[in-house]
């Protein structure tokens, strides 16, 4: 009887040592996934839905926060040359159609500037500078554009923070999955131990 009590006590200890880390992983993972230490970028570039488009059809779309940015102050330059754009105030998107009439032979510089209101209510003027790096296949189609952002700007830092948050959310999901696997392993181990104890 004393041996059985001791054996059961060992089971309780083993279960406790397994359940507590698993529960901690679930709680920590959920907290990490739900917490937001950054705010969405005030302006961000929306890449084309179909990346394999000709340069003539290539269109850049910029989504902006209408509560913080006056869309009429948004200015777009390609290689330091201003280009016309179309503003859809209903969708909060700036459209820049027909960026290139001929396939570019080298990377192009895209600059976006606008006036915005920062967290303290102060008006600021900032810009996002992006290097559009073309990659072409043998059919001379634009395969994709690699947006290399310069992050030492107000919006650039926000985009960096948003990327870090996305990675953090992914890591949190991994933690939760690992916790569920650990709990399942603990359950199976408990079933095996109880089966062995029943035969003793």
Description:
There is one protein chain. This protein has two domains: 2-35 and 166-199; 43-150, Immunoglobulin-like (Sandwich). A five-stranded antiparallel beta sheet has the order 4-3-7-8-9. It contains two helices and nine strands. A hairpin with a 5-residue loop joins strand 8 (123-136) and strand 9 (142-149). The chain is of the alpha+beta class and 200 residues long. It starts with a helix and ends with a helix.
Structure described in brief:
The chain is an alpha+beta fold and 200 residues long. It has helices at 2-34, 154-199, and strands at 43-46, 60-64, 75-78, 81-82, 86-88, 93-96, 108-117, 123-136, 142-149. The chain has 2 domains: 2-35 and 166-199; 43-150, Immunoglobulin-like (Sandwich), CATH 2.60.40.
Task: Indicate the topology.
Layout: H1 2-34, E1 43-46, E2 60-64, E3 75-78, E4 81-82, E5 86-88, E6 93-96, E7 108-117, E8 123-136, E9 142-149, H2 154-199
Antiparallel strand pairs: 1-2, 2-6, 3-4, 3-7, 5-6, 7-8, 8-9
Helix pairs in contact: 1-2
Characteristic key phrases:
single chain; alpha+beta; 200 residues; 4-stranded antiparallel β-sheet; 2 domains; elongated; disordered N terminus
């Amino acid at each position: 009887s004393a041996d059985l009590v001791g054996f059961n006590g060992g089971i309780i200890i083993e279960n406790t040592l397994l359940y507590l880390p698993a529960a901690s992983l679930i709680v920590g993972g959920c907290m990490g996934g739900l917490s937001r230490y950054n705010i969405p970028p005030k302006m961000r570039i929306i890449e084309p839905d179909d990346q394999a488009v000709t340069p003539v059809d290539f269109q850049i779309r910029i989504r902006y926060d209408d509560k913080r940015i006056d869309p009429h102050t948004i200015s777009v330059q390609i290689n330091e040359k201003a280009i016309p754009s179309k503003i859809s105030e209903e969708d909060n998107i700036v459209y820049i159609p027909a960026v290139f009439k001929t396939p570019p032979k080298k990377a192009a510089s895209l600059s976006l500037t606008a006036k915005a209101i920062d967290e303290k209510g102060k008006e600021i003027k900032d810009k996002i500078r992006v290097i559009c790096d073309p990659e072409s296949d043998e059919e001379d189609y634009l395969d994709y554009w690699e947006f290399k952002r310069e992050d030492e700007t107000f919006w650039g830092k926000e985009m960096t923070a948003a990327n870090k948050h996305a990675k953090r959310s992914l890591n949190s999901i991994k933690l939760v999955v690992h916790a569920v696997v650990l709990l399942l392993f603990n359950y199976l181990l408990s079933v095996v131990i109880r089966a062995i104890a029943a035969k003793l």
